[in-house]
């Protein structure tokens, strides 16, 4: 079975002395539980695994009991690995984990802990509230083109259309079934269970409509005023901005902000909407495969979305920022920055586009590395396979 890079990363950390809780976070259906199980299979230490799937188990007392069993194993064997899945379903889970972890530290219990769950929002909320300084994150993003090509034999066009959710990609020979899976196993549970049930959302219909409109406009600039018009003015710019942040944290869609050297633009600026996987754009559009891949404009937005999602996924592990830029009619698709390094990226993908914006940006910000993805020098496929250096 194919193993992602995060498998080796987690296995390596579990082989180290006990230092931090390991938390695997990411969108639904990206293979978090599978990755944890694969990592555990590479570690020789005794293991205690538990999933809080059943409602009767979702209580702090049950969490304490499972943890105690891991302590007993560690006492007998010298160490133990405790793997807890869907831990976010336990009320006040983060405070309980903090108490038990700190108690182990004081008493010398050598219990190494791995946490994962389907709701990234709830996990992150708990981490920020109780577990500061006690954990390391291991991101599980949607799969890259390189991963899908190696694991499932995907072509570039298949990846552009079907996206990078491993369970969905394996249904690509049955498009209606694939589309239903993306909606029923990814979009709906993320909206209804991860966001609407866990966060205070006063206008759930607005949030849902925002995702549908945003997915259709993926890789395009859209002002908050225009968004409100598309949503029949149900809300205000602050509400829209907050809902975009929720959708981003949940792994569905982000609003990229304009690049500015001193500060990023505030919420009032126009975001460039970007779904986190091309399949979300395809399913929301309702367009046929032939129309999306063969029409120049539509294919262009699909490729730009694929490039953007690739950059966002890499940014989570390589710690760089992803923005876009426009002044007047001059525009750059993506601007990525890491410390003092800066790269401007223009995507040529079937649509007729001018490189005027790239030239103006480089003049305005000397020292910028310029990339034209889709050119003879940097083909789209090579870029998505990681063969093109992102910084110089």
Describe the overall structure.
This protein has 392 residues and is of the alpha/beta class. It has two domains: 5-140, P-loop containing nucleotide triphosphate hydrolases (Rossmann fold, 3-Layer(aba) Sandwich), CATH 3.40.50; 145-384, no CATH class. The chain is 48% helix and 17% strand. α16 links the parallel β11 (341-347) and β12 (369-373). α4 crosses α5. Residues 263-267 have low confidence and may be disordered.
Question: How would you sum up the global shape?
Answer: globular
The helix content is: 40-55%
Structural class by sheet pairing and helices: alpha/beta
Q: What can be said about the biggest beta sheet?
A: 5 strands, parallel
Q: Indicate how many domains the architecture comprises.
A: 2
Number of strands: 12
Q: What is the average of the pLDDT values?
A: 92
String of helices and strands: HEHEHEHEHEHHHHHEHHEEHHHEEEHEH
Sheet with the most strands: spatial strand order: 2-3-4-1-5
Q: Report the sheet-strand fraction.
A: 15-25%
The stretches of 5 or more residues where confidence is low (pLDDT under 50) are 263-267
**Number of continuous helical runs:** 17
Query: What's the gyration radius in Å?
Result: 22 Å
State the end-to-end distance. 35 Å
